[in-house]
Automatic annotation (TrEMBL):
Site (Transition state stabilizer): 77
Catalysis performed (reactions): Thiol-dependent hydrolysis of ester, thioester, amide, peptide and isopeptide bonds formed by the C-terminal Gly of ubiquitin (a 76-residue protein attached to proteins as an intracellular targeting signal)
GO molecular function: cysteine-type deubiquitinase activity
Record EC number: 3.4.19.12
Keyword tRNA-binding: no
Positions annotated as active site in the UniProt record: 83, 158
Protein name, UniProt field: Ubiquitin carboxyl-terminal hydrolase
Length: 339
């Protein structure tokens, strides 16, 4: 029933989410607390923040002990090393219905709806699907050391989440008694309010700590780009229809009311120019889809290498070197360089 520590990496987190059965989302790493950058990645469902945990730090804002009353899914962290998965789940379980959770998480969310935070945490700890997905990133170790209690001087890092739920910006930390409220917000301004909260937390460490990590849970870029290309294809066809005498120009006749680019232009010249613009944007979107697929491929390869057990190969390689009497000279050479 042990849970391993996992690397703070967008490729790792994205595959972990997929293995839990969730579709249509991914994780992106952020290198700056920039509201405009976050808005360019919209929709952003939540932020995952990694920081050095310090015992005894008080909550940064009021803690709401009755999360259920506010419609927040909040689970206590009852498992050691599970804070990464816990932070991810804190966002996923509070996402809008447009996010497809998959059977495991959807059933858990429904089953635990009236549970308190501790029972929700126990439900997570007892989920074989979640534990298996989390532990799939365990690193093989040649020597298993017995577990020990963390010492005062040990560096202990912790993941928490920030997201809006029912008009309130929440900090979701499984080690607290409940969700931490940072005040009212909207789906449009919550990121602007979350950035100074995170910045303030970073500044508390002054110059004693520089190791932080921030990631965003967003809609799948590939899905967003493909949807955009489809929208553009529809607009292009309406332009071509208008050029052919089928209407659709000017006042919006034949226009899709959900078209983010607005009404079609008036006149053949304007329509031809619009078709040319659309074709350029479609080509760019398809190029970005290909680039995203290549990046996903790199993530997949990196995760395969993370999970692969190289230890038997290394042991056998050293054995062969020893049998051919090449190991000792290499050791002596390495010692000489070290001196």
């Amino acid at each position: 029933m042990d849970w391993t520590t996992i690397e703070s990496d967008p490729g790792v987190f994205t595959e972990l989410i997929q293995e839990m059965g969730v579709k249509g989302v991914q994780v992106e790493e952020l290198y700056a607390l920039d509201e405009d950058l976050l808005k360019s990645m919209a929709p952003v469902y939540g932020l995952i923040f990694l920081f050095k945990w310090r015992s005894g730090d008080p909550p940064s804002a009021p803690v709401e002990t009755d999360a259920n009353a506010n419609g927040v899914f909040f689970a206590s962290q009852v498992i050691t090393n599970a804070c990464a998965t816990q932070a991810i789940l804190s966002i996923l379980m509070n996402c809008p219905p447009s996010v497809t959770l998959g059977a495991e998480l959807a059933n858990m969310k429904e089953f635990t709806a009236e549970f308190d935070a501790d029972l929700k945490g126990l439900a997570i700890s007892n989920s074989e699907t979640i534990r298996k997905a989390h532990n799939s990133f365990a690193r093989p170790e040649p020597i298993m050391e017995p577990e020990r209690e963390a010492k005062k001087d040990d560096d202990v890092f912790h993941f928490i989440a920030y997201m809006p739920v029912n008009g309130v910006l929440y900090e979701l930390d499984g080690l607290k008694k409940g969700p931490i409220s940072h005040g009212a917000c909207t789906d449009d301004d919550w990121m602007g309010k979350a950035c100074p909260v995170i910045q303030s937390r970073i500044e508390k460490y002054a110059s004693s700590e520089i190791r932080f990590n921030l990631m965003a849970l967003i809609k799948s870029k590939r899905d967003a780009l493909e949807e955009r290309a489809q929208t553009l294809e529809g607009r292009k066809q309406r332009c071509l229809s208008a050029l052919g005498g089928g209407g659709g120009g000017g006042g919006g006749e034949g226009m899709d009311v959900d078209d983010p680019d607005g009404p079609l232009p008036v006149g053949d010249d304007a329509l031809n120019a619009e078709v040319a613009r659309i074709e350029v944007e479609i080509a760019r979107s398809r190029g970005e889809v290909e680039a995203e697929l290549e990046r996903r491929g790199r993530w997949r390869d990196e995760n395969i290498r993370r999970k692969h057990n190289y230890i038997p190969f290394i042991f056998n390689f050293l054995k062969v070197l020893a049998e051919k009497k090449k190991l000792e000279p290499l050791i002596e050479k390495a010692r000489g360089k070290g001196a």
